[in-house]
Write a structure and sequence with these properties.
This protein is mainly α and 124 residues long. It has a single domain, classed as Tetratricopeptide repeat domain (Serine Threonine Protein Phosphatase 5, Tetratricopeptide repeat, Alpha Horseshoe). It is 70% helix and 0% strand. It is built from 5 helices and no strands.
Amino acid sequence: MDPAELPSESGRLIEANNLNGMAAVHEKRQEYVEAERFYEEALAVYEEIYGTQHLTTAVATRNLARVLRVQGKIAEASLMEDHAADILSRRADPDEAPKMPFGGSSGFFELLGNYYTREPDTEV
């Protein structure tokens, strides 16, 4: 499906995921100012889509807090870490935890790892 045909919320989610990915690249390169900007933009879109109390928003908040802390913005980072921890602590209730395919994200990446390490098909 062409991304232009996706509902606007799906397009915004793709945008947020791309922003988050760009932030991670900058963070890995230790380009923290750029990483902060991209994480902030991603977080704003996630909040727009999911609200401020969603698991995805908590993870995005934690990502931004990590970059802020590295830059010495301790007070701001602490507030964001506390907010993310509050959301995540409520997710400890098994009745409230979201159901994730493949046993959560770690299971998903394990599945991908198995895909990439399996023997290639030899049929011609």
